[in-house]
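Example for tutorial group B:
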């Protein structure tokens, strides 16, 4: 089934990764957007969402309270929540109708973003492929305009 809108939530260390997913998705789709940006509150973000929408929440350790609370409010409002997290025991799991567990263990002092980027790129590639020719034509048109307008550096 097609969602009326797909909204993306990530906070603190998850914010840049959810922004990356949002940037890629908006090249292909007009109904995807990233929430809780530019001083938007959860009340503002969730106001018009309902069962015909879908929320994707990225939440990995250390878990950001804002992402978990936003998922809980969305779930209570009947919005299907897809959690992308690092553990089945993550707090966001309690509010999700679907769960993707992506290990982020790393010798680094913080979680690794690499598996999350691979997951998001794979997910979006599948969604674009299943969405048909019109979506691929939209991406191609945006790319042409970016080249034509000078948004991309000319060699």
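The residue assignment follows.
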């Amino acid at each position: 089934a097609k969602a009326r809108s797909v909204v993306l939530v990530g906070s603190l260390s998850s914010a840049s990764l959810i922004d990356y997913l949002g940037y890629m998705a908006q090249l292909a789709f007009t109904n995807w957007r990233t929430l809780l940006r530019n001083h938007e509150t959860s009340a503002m973000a969730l106001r018009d969402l309902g069962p015909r929408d879908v929320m994707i929440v990225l939440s990995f350790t250390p878990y950001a309270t804002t992402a978990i609370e936003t998922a809980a409010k969305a779930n209570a409002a009947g919005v299907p929540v897809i959690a992308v997290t690092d553990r089945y025991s993550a707090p966001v799991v309690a509010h999700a109708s679907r769960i993707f567990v992506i290990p982020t263990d790393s010798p680094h002092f913080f979680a690794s973003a690499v598996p999350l980027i691979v997951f998001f790129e794979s997910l979006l590639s599948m969604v674009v492929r299943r969405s048909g020719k019109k979506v691929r034509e939209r991406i191609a048109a945006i790319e042409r305009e970016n080249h034509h307008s000078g948004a991309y550096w000319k060699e």
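The radius of gyration is 16 Å. Compare this with the pattern of hydrophobic and polar residues in the output above.
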